[in-house]
């Protein structure tokens, strides 16, 4: 049996209207409860500082786009620039303590001169001086030059035959070889291994002089 049975037509219409209003009110109330359930009972008025449950004021959030209060401002001081290290200037010829082009450095032998220490280490080797020229006293003069430079001259005499130039002769593989080369370099002539005629002569460097010795000695005389 219907809820509105027994009622007059106007009463039925009024009852249906009331039911519709109640349904609409219920729907609106449900939507309102669902949307505002998480909000606080008391709204914070604009411009006021919200407080925590303990009553302490809460810091306000910075406005969008504004710099954070905790971010320090960028330093405006210009970066310090360290002076660029410059390489020392290249040594130029003629400066104090620096040898120029073609000049020997301190403690180095000049052109045509053997190393000082190396040369001195060979001067203990015996040197024999033979005159193969027609110049009287040439062997004695050469022996004097050699001794003045520190060489150990043990014999001075003549040599028969005819040789083309002044040469210091040595026995290969002995100390005579290095000594003969150092002596020849110092006084401006060549050094060669001994030839057959002097192979059995006593130990030592044999310098056989010719007439070119005076023009080729180290003093240029």
Structural description of this entry:
By secondary structure, this protein is an alpha/beta fold. Helix content is 29%, strand content 12%. It is built from five helices and five strands, in the order H-H-E-H-E-E-H-E-E-H. It has helices at residues 9-36, 116-122, 138-148, 175-187, 213-216; strands spanning 126-131, 152-158, 167-170, 190-193, 205-209. It has a five-stranded mixed beta sheet with strand order 2-1-5-3-4, with helices on one face. The radius of gyration is 60 Å and the shape is rod-shaped. The model is unreliable at 38-45, 66-70 and 91-115 (pLDDT under 50).
Task: Summarize the topology.
Elements: H1 9-36, H2 116-122, E1 126-131, H3 138-148, E2 152-158, E3 167-170, H4 175-187, E4 190-193, E5 205-209, H5 213-216
Cα-atom radius of gyration: 60 Å
Number of strands: 5
What proportion of the residues is helical, as a percent range? 25-40%
Q: Which structural class is indicated by helix and strand composition?
A: alpha/beta
Describe the largest sheet.
5 strands, mixed
Poorly predicted regions:
38-45, 66-70, 91-115
Chain-averaged pLDDT: 71
Instruction: Kindly report how far apart the N and C termini lie.
Output: 161 Å
**Mass-distribution shape:** rod-shaped
Element string (H = helix, E = strand): HHEHEEHEEH
Strand line-up across the major sheet: 2-1-5-3-4
Number of helices: 5
Strand fraction: 5-15%
């Amino acid at each position: 049996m219907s809820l509105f049975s027994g009622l007059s037509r106007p009463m039925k219409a009024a009852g249906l209207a009331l039911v519709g209003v109640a349904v609409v009110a219920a729907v609106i109330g449900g939507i309102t409860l669902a949307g505002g359930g998480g909000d606080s009972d008391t709204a914070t008025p604009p411009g006021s500082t919200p407080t925590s449950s303990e009553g302490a004021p809460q810091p306000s959030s910075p406005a969008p786009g504004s710099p954070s209060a905790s971010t320090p401002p960028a330093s405006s001081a210009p970066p310090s620039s360290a002076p660029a290290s410059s390489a020392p200037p290249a040594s130029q010829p003629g400066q104090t303590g620096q040898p120029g082009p073609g000049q020997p450095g301190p403690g180095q032998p000049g052109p045509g001169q053997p190393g000082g220490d190396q040369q001195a280490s060979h001067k203990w080797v015996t040197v024999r001086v033979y005159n193969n020229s027609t110049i009287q006293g040439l062997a004695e003069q050469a022996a004097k030059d050699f001794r003045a430079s520190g060489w150990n001259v043990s014999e001075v005499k003549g040599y028969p035959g005819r040789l083309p130039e002044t040469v210091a002769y040595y026995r290969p593989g002995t100390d005579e070889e290095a000594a003969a080369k150092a002596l020849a370099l110092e006084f401006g002539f060549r050094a060669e291994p001994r030839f057959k005629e002097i192979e059995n002569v006593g130990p030592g460097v044999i310098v056989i002089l010719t007439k070119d010795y005076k023009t080729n000695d180290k003093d240029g005389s």
